[in-house]
Every structure is written in structure tokens, then in C-alpha cells.
Amino acid sequence: MLKIIISPAKKMNVLEEFPCPLTIPVLSERMEYLYELLKSKDINSLKTLWKCSDKLAEQNFNRLRTYAPNKNLTPSLLAYEGIQYQHIAPRVFTDSQWAYALSHLRILSGMYGVLSPSDGVIPYRLEMQAKLKTESADDLYGYWKDTLYQQIAADGTDEIINLASAEYSKAILPYIESEIKCVTCIFGELITDKRGTEKLKVKGTHAKIARGEMVRWMSNQQVEHTEDIKKFKEMGYQFREELSNEKEYVFTVC
Q1: Which helix (H) or strand (E) holds 55?
Q2: pLDDT of 149-167, one tens digit each?
Q3: Predicted confidence (pLDDT) per residue in 138-149, tens digit
Q4: In the Cβ-directed half-sphere of 153, how many Cα atoms lie within 13 Å?
Q5: Which of 35, 66, 80, 248 has the CA that lies 20 to 30 A from 229?
């Protein structure tokens, strides 16, 4: 079975109505430990951890006291509001697209570990690279170890399409076993430097948009194998065989 992994977004919302029944995150017990750990800290410590402004620190500090893991929940795919999610456009998914996402799409999270699109979540701020010390580790990579990968690799997974950022894919890629084919997608444009040499340039915002478009396209096409994504041509992108290899598929704007 094919699995697609993507990153979460910092901006989140709470919805009262949604098109699917809520499910419980598979690593909810480990999430609740992190939630209580964050809740025990003062606002200054959290601001340092989050590396954010006073306004954002206050907002997220208040969220820890307003929301709880068992109430005011929103399906994860609808809760995140970043650029990537705007281009996935899950609010206008057909039933078949939702069914595809539920089966194939997984969201990596510093707080929740791994999320299915229907898993209920609360607004939070906790990036995977945050230096949050726990009883067992000095950061979240150490806390989660290979747990995220083991969840992704469960249920007969034999192919993985990595559309996550480096920050999040770092929690998966080191643990990939040889029998699972994993392809990381790179979206960029070819530019010519002063010496006349062509180089691939990746722009963060454009890459996020392309990742979202690819998820939407895959859900529409019901893609089941990594080879099939070579046909992706949304937003003028084209697969570049000569720039790609078995672990990285490169797409450039025509």
C-alpha cells in the first residue's frame, strides 16, 4: 500500500461542522504526555521553546488552558490552514477523494506524532525541531525515535511518497527499511548562473503550493504507486527524469 506523508501547518482553526466522523490519533497517549508537559511550563519558558513573538506566545499559552485533547476537536486535514492545505483544498473533496486521503495520507506532527486526516486535533504550537526535553530525550526527535516510521510502515505499506519538509521527514527517512520504496518529491525551477550553468532552485512557498497540489491531484487520480506521480503536471510542473533518481523525483516548472 502507498502512503503519503506531509508536514503540518502552524496556523490552525476549530470547526464545528465537518464531512467525516472524528477518529482518535493512534499515538494519543504520547500526545497527552506532551500536552501536560507544555501546560506545566510558564509563558516565558514556552516563548523560548516556541521561538515566537509575545503575541503568539500569549495566544498559544491561552490555548493550552482553553483546549483539551478530548474536546473542541477538528479533523486534522481541515484543522491546518497553511498554504499547502489551501491547495489540497479538503473542504471541497468528493467522497472518493476523502476515502483516498483516509487510506493513504498521513500528517506528521511534533505534538501528535502521526495523524490520519480524520483524527481529531486541537490548536497547538509544537514544531518537530523544538528543543523540548522529556523524561526520555532532549528533543522531539529523540522522544518519537522510530515510532512515526513504524506507524507509517504499518498495514502493508510498501511505498512512501515524501511530501514533508526536511524538518519533518527527518523523523522518518533515517528509519526507512530496504523493502519499502520511499520517494522524496522536489519542486523547483532551473536557473542559469553567471557561468552559464543550470542549477535547481527551490523556493519555499512555491514548494508548499506544489506539495498541496500534488496531494489534491493524487486524491483525484486515485494514485496507487510512486511511478504514477511522474504524470503530475499541475501548475506547469513536469517530471525531470534526468535530474531524478530512485529516491528523489524532481519536478520543474516548464
Answers
A1: helix 54-66
A2: 999 998 889 999 999 999 9
A3: 999 999 999 999
A4: 15
A5: 80
